[in-house]
Amino acid sequence: MAELLRTDSLTKTFRGLVANSEIDFSLDAGEIRCIIGPNGAGKTTFISMISGHQAPTAGAIWFKGRNITGLPVYRIARLGILRKFQTPTVFDNLTVYENTELAVLATPTPPRERYAKILRTLELVRLAEVVAQVVGTLSHGQRQWLEIGMLLARDAELVLLDEPTAGMTAEETHATGELVRRLVEELGLAAIIIEHDINFIRDLRAPVTVLHLGRILVEGSFAEISGDAQVRSVYLGDA
Amino acid sequence: MTAAGPAPPSLGRRLTSSEDGVAVLALALFALLPVVVSGYSIYILPQYMLHGVMAMSLALLWGRGGVLSFGQAGFYALGAYTMGLCYRWVPLVNPAYAGMLIAFAVGGLLAAVLGYFLFRAGVRSAYFVLVTLAVSIIAEQVAVSQSQITGGWNGMYIDRMSLTLGDAVNVSLFDDAPMYYFVLVVVVAVYACLRWLAHAKFGKVLVGIRENEDRVLSLGFDVSAYKTATFAIAGALSTFAGALYGTHAGFVAPSLGGVLFSTEVVVWVAIGGRSSLLGAFLAAIGVSFLSNYLSALIPAYWPLILGMLFLAVIIFFRGGVAGALARWTRQPATRSAGNG
Amino acid sequence: MSSTAISLVTDATLLTLTLALASLGLAVVFGLIGVINMGHGAMLTLGAYFMWASIRAGIPFAPAAVLAAAGVALIGLALEHFILRHFYDRPFDTLLITWGFFLVTTEIIKLVFGTSFRDVPSPLPEAFDLGFQRVPAYRAALAAFTLTLLLGIAFVFYRTNLGIKIRALVQNREMASLLGLNIAATYKLVFVSGSFLAGLAGALIAPMFSVHPYMGMDFLVRSFFVVIVGGIGQILGGTLVGSFLIGGAETFFAQFSTQTFAQTVVFALAIIVLRFRPEGLLTPRSGQ
Q: Which residue of A lies nearest to C284 if distances are taken between CA atoms?
């Protein structure tokens, strides 16, 4: 499998505080990876550097063989790396259609094909019925799906999902898991998912990277991670 | 997929139907007015229409793009002075044509440079407002201090333009009606261009920037480039309008570019409806007319009333008149894009 | 030559502290609760007019200044309570509302007090004779007062419970409210304090300039640049540094041209500083 994303010794310090320390990370095309870790482990900082929202203090990021370290956010987005933020970052005052339209406008899709593409995307994320509704009136879960939908409409190759199921009901969480897996299988997306919901991660059956205090503690399958003593102690704070 | 047949209208199409209708109506009224009325109104209206162009440029910048500027009048004055200087210095060609062209180019260039300088560095919108405020102060000061060129506080006189085509055609626009129609044609052309721009991809991205800049950036749009381009367009248009104003009014003084007039433009656009090009345009004309009329009647009270009106609009009617009208004529499910 | 240099320094220092006094109210409000008070200049003007009215009514100088400041504080309270507090989450709206406040207030001032220039007599009309330069005693006294005021505010901020609460609020609003801090009351207090300071500045500056309805305008943009250059949130150090740079630059350039042209140059320079250090000179660069 082709390597899609790689970080070499990626480090980020904020005025003395080390958020990420020498992270060597690798992701293949079409792969899902979950990133877990206690609060303050540096998970969001890590994907912020990949998406370009934070500039690394040291180290490098490679995407499809190209060095993208320190590129501005919009350039990285154009390369196909798209990010879903921790709090849904959508256009609350616009309709579902208009939100997705903006994502499509960011692609070279010719005008007469845009409408079809928007509707296709909305069907994928189960929002086709609310196409004309103003986003601010949607449920929290629906807004998360909309944001994911926008990333798809934008022809993402790698999606960075920051806690996609935060605030969702159990049923919505399950649906999100299905959605992500289907997207990866059908569209060949790669995904890095920061999550706290154990069930969601287990259902995804994807490899897990555990971060702790800014470093990679251990990586492996869900079964391996959940049986790992180190991980247990980090989460449960064993003496 | 909803059972309802036609595509759910996007941002553009929903606004189009009713606003276009009103625009056509307004055009008809303006076109017929000189037939019915004559005298001062016909003389002064082109000036207000040019104010309206400045207002439309602010509506694009602020209403669509979310970038407030307290400095558009600075560009306006620059345009007027440019026209005056062209009449003084430009040989051979019709100075008015040179004035219009140079004004457009210089205004656009200055705005582009300032915009690039600031937006590329990520200067926040709130600070940008203060910069534009400083710009209008600077503009007024420059006009005063460079008195050898500008005439300082005494101002500058400008000839009334003529339409020429080589040596064959020479139509003087000295009389009210011909000038009126010339300005009307220009204004309609500007409106048409802006309306097209606002509903095209560019305009939609601008609205996105206004609504959630981070999201737009993270979708891959170069936000600062869009803001710079919009500011440049607004600057170019305001300067261009100012040039025509100059040759119409025949006179320009530093106060045209100053803070007080600059903020009046914001008041017009706020009242008319910042997201509506037509609303901003009509409000500029309406408020200017009202100002003219009432400040003769109740000179002490009119500015106060205008200030209170402005406050009321900001607090209660964020979408201005256009937004309020749009809200009352829409069904609740698909709200209008006219406000906010 | 050195006497010119010294007189330059004296001028710059006096201007710096005058600017600092004028900008303080804005720095407090902008820095602590993020409100861009475009009515700051109008509040300054109001303070000057209240001062004029109080002096005319026979009230002695110091109480008159406090009275004027209190009057402006009251108006600020009304503005905050009835209008502004509903818009804190929309910074652009607060900007426009306070601008509307400026428009309305200025017109009311014109109606009530008329448009002709007014004079507030200086309580210290003498001047210190430094040989090469005469320094008006009042300006020197005002400079000293401003320094004392800044120190006093520093004390409140860093040594009192109230100061700690306010700084907590600024750092982390959510956390502060969870800790039981009354957000609404704190915002009110900050805005009213800012208004008081603006009114006080207007009252104290009045003897130095002619009082007219637009006198605050001059200080509005300069105050904003003082605060931005110095750093938002750096209430004390930032205001001083910003005032020093803006005031100093103005004094310097005024040697070669008119006062107003010097102001123009300084604005242009401030815009350049803004572009390179948008968080201000004193604020440490963030990790971005």
A: A15
Chain C segment 228-287 residues within 8 A of A by beta carbon are: 284, 287
Amino acid symbol at A216:
I
Reply yes or no on whether the pLDDT at B331 is more than 50.
no
Give the residue-averaged pLDDT of C163-191.
76
Judging by beta carbons within 10 Å of its beta carbon (0-12, 13-18, 19+), is residue C288 exposed, middle or buried?
exposed
Interface test with C, best of B141, B266, B308 (most C CBs within 10 A): B141
What ranges do the domains of chain A cover? Answer: 3-80+157-236, 91-156
For residue B119, give the chain C residue with the closest CA: C275
CB-CB contact of B307 with C104 (8 Å): yes
CB atoms within 10 A of CB C91: 15
At C200 the pLDDT is: 95
Contact B125, B68 (CB under 8 A): yes
> Is residue C270 assigned to a domain?
yes
Pick the CATH number of A3-80+157-236 from 3.30.1490.20, 3.40.50.1820, 3.40.50.300, 3.40.50.720: 3.40.50.300
Report the CATH number at residue C231. Answer: 1.10.3470
Q: Average per-residue pLDDT in chain C?
A: 85
Closest residue on chain A to C288 (Cα)? A54
Residue numbers in C near B124 (CB within 8 A): 278
- What percent of chain A is modeled with pLDDT above 90? 51
Judged by CB atoms closer than 8 Å, whether chains meet at A15 and C288 is answered as: no
| C284 falls within a domain | no
Quick one: pLDDT band at residue A6, thresholds 50, 70, 90? very high
B87 in Cβ contact with B243 (< 8 Å): no
- Any idea where the domains of chain B sit in the sequence? 11-27+37-328
Domain count, chain C: 1
pTM (predicted TM-score): 0.90
Q: How many CB atoms lie within 10 A of CB A64?
A: 16
Binning pLDDT at 50, 70 and 90, where does residue A27 land?
very high
Task: Indicate the angle between helix axes C161-171 and C2-33, nearest 10 degrees.
Answer: 70
What are the Cα distances from residue C271, in Å, to B66, B71, B127, B131, C247?
A: 20, 14, 9, 7, 15
User: Does the residue C282 lie in any domain?
Assistant: no
| A237 contacts: CB under 8 Å, gap ≥ 6 | none
Round to whole Å and give the CA distance between B278 and B272. 8
Range with the lowest mean pLDDT among B6-10, B297-301, C117-121, C131-135? B6-10
B122, closest residue in chain A (CA to CA): A72
Chain A CB contacts of C287 below 8 Å: 12-15, 54-55, 57
Rounded to 5 degrees, φ, ψ at B111 are -65, -40
Could you tell me the CA-to-CA distances from A188 to A27, A30, A202, C138, C199 in Å, in that order?
A: 13, 5, 21, 77, 65
Picking from B10, B214, B222, the nearest residue to A101 by CB comes out as B10
Task: Flag if A98 and B11 touch (Cβ within 8 Å).
Answer: yes
Higher pLDDT: C7 or A111? It is A111
Quote the Cα angle for C256-C224-C29, to 5°: 150
- B11-27+37-328 belongs to which CATH class? mainly alpha
Strands A58-63 and A208-212: unpaired
The DSSP bridge partners found for residue A61 are A7
Residue A176 corresponds to which tokens in the numbers above? Answer: 């999100």
Contact B38/A at CB under 8 A: no
Q: H or E stretch including B215?
A: helix B213-218
Measured over all CA atoms, what is the biggest interatomic distance in chain C, rounded to whole angstroms? 61
Check pLDDT > 50 for residue B333. Answer: no
Considering the domain boundaries, does residue C118 fall inside one? yes
Give the residue numbers spanning the domain of C140. Answer: 2-276
Q: Can you tell me whether residue B340 is helix, strand or coil?
A: coil
